[in-house]
Structures are given as C-alpha cells and as structure tokens.
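Aim 2, interim progress: modelling of the guanine-bound target.
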Amino acid sequence: MSENGFILHGAAVYSENRERIISMDEAWIVCVDGVSRGVFDHFPEEYAGLEVEDYWDKLIVPGFTDLHVHAPQYQFRGTGMDMELLGWLNTIVFPEERRYKDLEYAESSYDQFIEDLFVGPTTRAAIFGTADVESTLLLMDMLEDTGLVTCVGKVNMDRNVPEYYCETAEQSLEDTITFVEGALAEEYERTMPIITPRFTVSCSRKLMQGLGEIAKEYNLPVQSHLSENLTEIRMVQELEPDASFYGETYEKTGLFGLPSDIRPEREECPGYGDTIMAHCVWSPKEEIALMKKNGVFIAHCPESNMNLTSGAAPASLYLDEGLRIGLGTDLGAGASPCLFDTMKAALTSSKLRKRFYDENIRSLDFSDVFYMATLGGGEFFGKVGSFEEGYEFDAVVLDDFSLSTMNEYGAAERMERLMYLGDDRNVVGKYVRGQKLY
Ligand code: GUN
Ligand code: FE
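Predicted structure of the complex, ligand included:
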C-alpha cells in the first residue's frame, strides 16, 4: 500500500450525487496520492499505516468551487449596487478594469483578492481577469503559488465598450494567443487559461468566431455571460437578428459546449467543449435545451442577480432537468467572495421567486445549495467536489465552536448553521488535491 496519504478524522458532510447528501457525525476520510479512497464510519484498518490528522469535533466538507468570479472587481465590492447591468458596467466596471494596465496596481489589488479567496471555503475557481494580457498573466502566476486550482481568462471585447477599454477584433485575437501561449509556457500545475468573451453585447461575430477557433486549437474551455438582464437580452436581439435566442450567438461560433458524444475524452479537465455560462436568469426553453444537450455549466450567481436587479434564475428547474450547475459569487456584482453568502442568496431568491413569480418552480433547499457549491461546480474541474472514492481530495475544515447553541445538531445541520451564521473565520483548514494549504 502506498504511504503517500493520510486520514482526516472529524464530522463530515458531502454530496454523493445531486439527490443525496451524506452526513456523518464521526468519519474517517482517506486520501492516497491526492485522491479520496472513501469515507468510513470506523477506523479503516486497511489504511492503518497512514497518519491520522485529528480534527475531533470540527466539520470536514469538500472544497467549494466558485464557477464565476471577476478578480479585478474586488476593489469596489460592496459599492455601486443601485444600478442595473449596462449602466453599472459603464460607470463602475470598465473604468476600474482599465486600471490593470498598471502592473503595480494590479499586483497590489490581486494580492488582496487572492488573500480573501485563500482564507475562505473556496478551493477551485473560474476567474475573469481584464482585457490586459500582462496583468492577467501576473494574476495566474500569483494564483499558482497559492495551491488553489483555477482557470483564468483574458477578457475579450471589441464593441459597445468605451474607447479607452475597447479592442479591435484583430488585436483582441492576437492578444488572446499571446496570453494563451504565455500561460501554457509556464507549465503551471494548477492554473490554466480559459477563453473569455465578455458577452455577446461586447463581442462581434468575427471576434467570437476567432475565439472559438482558438479554443479548439489549444483545447481550452470557455466562460462567458448569458441571459442575465432584460435590456442586455434585447440588445443581443438587435445586434444578432439571425440568432433565435441569445445562446445561439455562442453556439454559432463554437463557444457553447459540445454534445457528450463528440466532447473529447481527456485526462486533464477542463478542456475544449467545457463551457461555463454565468447567470441564465431569463433563458428561454430552447436555450435551456441546448445547454443540456451541450453539457454547458450554468454558474448560478444569485447575489449578483439580486444586487443588479437582474432577476432570480430558476435554479431548481436546472437541477431537476439534469443540467450542470454550480454557484458563482460574481464578485463585484456579488459583494461577498465567500460562497456561504452565495448559498444563502440562492435559497432566499429561490423562495421569493416561487412566492412572487412562479409557484410551479420549487424553491431550493439546503442540500441543493450545498451540492451546487461543491459537487455541482466541482464537476467542471473533473472528479472534484465529493469525498466519494476516486474524487480529487479537496477539503475544508470548519470550526463552528463560536456559533453557540444549547442544542445538539448533526453534521448536516451544523453545516447549514455555518452557512447562515458563519464566514471565512470559521475556515480553519484547507486541502487541495491532497496537499495541505493550512
Ligand atoms: N456581463 C458582461 N460583463 C459583466 C460583468 O463584469 N459582470 C456581470 N455581472 N455581468 C456582465
Ligand atoms: Fe460576471
């Protein structure tokens, strides 16, 4: 038996699949060579040679995945929330993102963002940089040193963006190749490039077509925004009259996932054909069907959707229809980088949606939001987000001692209380691919 492993002992909660959450008040979780060998309710004698890390009364859960976050929007988080999407982009986002051409500013700012990511429950993330190549490569360098696993994109845009931040299609494509080759040349172990058209409003057909070709040529995943805001959707209809719905503008340009029968088999995840679309608040039936067919991941960003008055996405419908879905903080439209807050927002917005908008679509429950934060989003990175045997070993250790109560609760209820009452300060340990970060 390999000695390259360890056992974590404590209470455990994890999703076995999207229907079933496992709660164990006492568990031994075995990691060998960075991969889970499963969870036991007794000391597993067959692994007696491995060191036991004893967390006693603490809670151990799989690492969380943030499927959609903007690193350069960290500085203005918690401000400017009284606008809707397009006004907010022009007033707050574009002027700030433009500043990242200044590498000193970028380094100081990304340092703060990364520290916040590091201390919270997140172990994996899909991250937007800015249109600037150098500062986005710098962000990747800085992330690689943390031990977290991330995808990072240089943002593309060649229309409907103020001149000071707008690219031409040619320059944007050329810069994307420079960015991708620069990132790949570093041979990072846990940081990979991802193709990142901002959204159809700001990307011409020519640019999107070129990006689709680059994604294919370099075997890269894609991330973007979709059907977030009603004014945005109307603008896409005007800009792209031959598309019958918004998602088709990505599909026509090779940026909208691939059906499972032609999606390449791969050792390393993610790759070409793996796509994240953030928001999907107002997706019509045809768009939902195409996302399902093409295995597109939905990044459900409920805090952002409330802050920018975008709406409330039908997350339970996506879950029940078998679409792939995880959670995104969407920082800075979401104020908090901590996915506990995103989980809460998902619950709240789904309950209000059901009561005020559509009684036929059920509200989410705790096990749904826990699933989305762990296994649902983790799937984008491969076998990630569970302690089931064979999953990459990402874990966070949570201390709920400060959340006093005179009641006795089981492990799942303790996790629910941590989500409602806790924050980053309750995160006391973190493992990624079997490596202990703290
Ligand atoms: N759509 C295009 N760009 C953005 C962005 O930066 N944030 C959000 N929430 N939506 C977008
Ligand atoms: Fe976003």
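The chain has 13 helices and 17 strands. The mean pLDDT is 97.
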